[in-house]
Amino acid sequence: MIKVFDLTKAYGDRIAVDRVNFSIEAGKIIGFLGPNGAGKTTTMRMLTGFIPSTDGKIHIGDYDLDTHPLEAKKLIGYLPENVPLYTDMTVLEYLGFMAEIRQVKKNRNACMETLEKVQLENRANSLIGSLSKGMRQRVGLVQAILHNPPVLILDEPTVGLDPAQISEIRKLIQSLGEQHTILLSTHILPEVQQVCDRVLIINKGKLVAEDTPEQLQKQLHGNLCVKVQIANLNQELISTVEQLPGVLSARETAPNWLEITLQADTEIRPHIIRELVQNGAEILEFKHSVMDLEQIFLELTREELPAETN
Ligand SMILES: Nc1ncnc2c1ncn2[C@@H]1O[C@H](COP(=O)(O)OP(=O)(O)OP(=O)(O)O)[C@@H](O)[C@H]1O
């Protein structure tokens, strides 16, 4: 449904999105993850035709966004990070207004039906200014689905909402996912695990992973992860472990907990324990750790330490 080839965006000298390739099948909910400034919003803006790309191609359905922008854009509904809402309009007035701008024919009944999809039909005559943030976000969603597009692009739809509102919007996204292909950017990792079929992870403008959350777990573990609780954990011990052959990384992830990522093809755990004890470590616990999505995300987007300079 969405195909992206070598998509690139430069703002002057700064490359915000760097030769990104992915494709999204119809009927899936895809999570788009990345740290701040990774390029999520820029990618989404290019997909929606909101800003032009510097290079690369975007196909939405059967249409190339460059050569058939109107046809391609009709297939997309977009919920931007900050939806411009008119607080002195009622929900229904706003929908009528958006329908007019988009040149979608919507009578009152059709607008009410769309409102039902986001459970806002009871607030049709409320002023947008009087609605809670969660309800306003639903108004944002309603303007995105107004022309019944097969693709929805949602930029951080739960940001700034309280936990109850987050849960409501999440359920709504899941129900919209039954009829739409959805690309959803978020910072909330449990959201991805609960809602998304697949995950794209972007870091510094480059796509660093694309898979199901489960496959990402397997793919990285490929590498093995162990956690060691050490009463007297210090930088010297961490450096000792880091330098052992077969150790990919060693980090203090919680007070007194050392997390070590190992190559899976060699068994060096006894060697690690020996080295730690010989270097005075007081080991309290040693356990195998299964990476959750948060750890995978951190692993893939971790800042590489600059090479030491003398
Ligand atoms: N209009 C612009 N002009 C110049 N640089 C920009 C512009 N918009 C974004 N950038 C830069 O491009 C990079 C990617 O930004 P983008 O907003 O796409 O990231 P993001 O992943 O959506 O981040 P966040 O999660 O913080 O919204 C950042 O370094 C940002 O500073």
Automatic annotation (TrEMBL):
Residues 2-229 form the ABC transporter domain. CDD domains: ABC_DR_subfamily_A. Keywords: ATP-binding, Nucleotide-binding, Transport. Pfam families: ABC_tran (PF00005), DrrA1-3_C (PF13732). PROSITE patterns: ABC_TRANSPORTER_1, ABC_TRANSPORTER_2. GO terms for molecular function: ATP binding; ATP hydrolysis activity. It comes from the Bacteria. The keyword Nucleotide-binding applies. Belongs to the ABC transporter superfamily. PANTHER family: ABC TRANSPORTER, ATP-BINDING PROTEIN. This is ABC transporter domain-containing protein. It comes from Ornatilinea apprima.
